[in-house]
Automatic annotation (TrEMBL):
<dbReference type="Pfam" id="PF00005">
    <property type="entry name" value="ABC_tran"/>
</dbReference>
<dbReference type="InterPro" id="IPR017871">
    <property type="entry name" value="ABC_transporter-like_CS"/>
</dbReference>
<feature type="domain" description="ABC transporter">
    <location>
        <begin position="9"/>
        <end position="234"/>
    </location>
</feature>
<protein>
    <submittedName>
        <fullName>ABC transporter ATP-binding protein</fullName>
    </submittedName>
</protein>
<keyword id="KW-0813">Transport</keyword>
<keyword id="KW-0547">Nucleotide-binding</keyword>
<dbReference type="InterPro" id="IPR050763">
    <property type="entry name" value="ABC_transporter_ATP-binding"/>
</dbReference>
<dbReference type="GO" id="GO:0005524">
    <property type="term" value="F:ATP binding"/>
</dbReference>
<dbReference type="InterPro" id="IPR003439">
    <property type="entry name" value="ABC_transporter-like_ATP-bd"/>
</dbReference>
<dbReference type="InterPro" id="IPR027417">
    <property type="entry name" value="P-loop_NTPase"/>
</dbReference>
<keyword id="KW-0067">ATP-binding</keyword>
<keyword id="KW-0046">Antibiotic resistance</keyword>
<dbReference type="InterPro" id="IPR003593">
    <property type="entry name" value="AAA+_ATPase"/>
</dbReference>
Length: 284
């Protein structure tokens, strides 16, 4: 019987190397069931390597990984029917037509989602007869996502799901991921897009150089401390208004003996969080 009480993913002290290069350096994190969890980090942070280890494509060189309570390498046959995987690229034969590929994958599953519904939902109708190699990058991504979810998995791993997509395709993809979560599917995605993590994820794990540097909901991570005052107004301020505000705050602070360390207009974002923690920009 599957263990339904175990977290969706448990990673404890994971170490992964390529030769001398340490790609994942003692990473520990947990993914709760039914959540959308984003693993956020810059290029080369170790996101894909971590995902590939969870998917059973790589064996941990140190530490322990459990997915739905199972060892992804030793219990791969048991795990595979319960997870969906969207790779960063590829995953289909170059000459196969998009819809044909999806129907083929659907047939591998006991109770697949209706292919027509997925084709329609992901806007793949126009390119259903197009060979895979002629699809645009965004279309290949959407087909990859459809292939990952067609088997009604409990847990889906998606690597950079919207990389290279136009804004409309990104929105469609986000909506589909949110619908899956509503249906109880757990989603683990990697991204280096801050807005994607902020808009979509219930939980964000920020990793850098193979190590976890912060975890929390987007609200928790961007909240700041009680020493941070955030003023939200209902319209854009003209430059003169922010000058006047600055002057008033400065007068008030002087009168109350408060030392204002910084005033910023606009909110703290995950980019600020990353910069604060690492001293580097995420999307450089
Ligand atoms: N097959 C490989 N051989 C050697 N080094 C590798 C290999 N795959 C990844 N690396 C290195 O391991 C580190 C982590 O790579 P990984 O792809 O896991 O990071 P990532 O966070 O997914 O990056 P990206 O956003 O660019 O995909 C990087 O320094 C990368 O260059």
């Amino acid at each position: 019987m599957p263990d339904t009480s175990a977290p969706a993913v448990e990673i404890a002290g994971l170490v992964m190397r390529y030769g001398d290069k340490v790609a994942v350096d003692g990473l520990s994190l947990t993914v709760e069931r039914g959540s959308i969890t984003a693993v956020l980090g810059p290029n080369g942070a170790g996101k894909t390597t971590t995902l590939e280890t969870c998917e059973g494509f790589r064996k941990p060189q140190g530490g322990r990984v459990r997915v739905l309570g199972l060892d992804p390498v030793a219990q791969r046959r048991e795990l595979l029917p319960r997870i969906g995987v969207m790779l960063q690229s590829g995953g289909a034969w170059s000459g196969v037509r998009a819809e044909e590929m999806l129907r083929h994958v659907a047939k591998l599953h006991a109770d697949p989602l209706p292919v027509d519904m997925l084709v329609e939902r992901l806007g793949l109708g126009d390119c259903g007869k197009t060979p895979y190699r002629r699809l645009s990058g965004g279309q290949q991504q959407r087909l990859g996502l459809a292939m990952a979810v067609v088997g009604r998995p409990e847990l889906v791993f998606v690597d950079e799901p919207t990389a290279g997509m136009d804004p409309a395709a990104r929105r469609t993809t986000w909506e589909l991921l949110q619908e899956l979560r509503t249906d109880g599917v757990t989603i683990v995605l990697t991204t280096h897009y801050l807005d994607e993590a902020e808009r979509l994820a219930d939980m964000v794990h920020i990793i850098d150089r193979g190590t976890l540097i912060a975890s929390g909901s987007p609200e928790e991570l961007t909240r700041g401390s009680s020493a941070t005052v955030r003023l939200v107004v209902d319209r854009e301020l003209e430059p003169s208004a922010s000058d006047a505000l600055r002057a008033s705050i400065s007068d008030w602070s002087a009168a109350h003996g408060v030392d204002v360390q910084s005033i910023s207009f606009g909110s703290r974002t995950l980019e600020d969080v990353f910069l604060h923690l690492t001293g580097r920009e995420l999307e450089s």
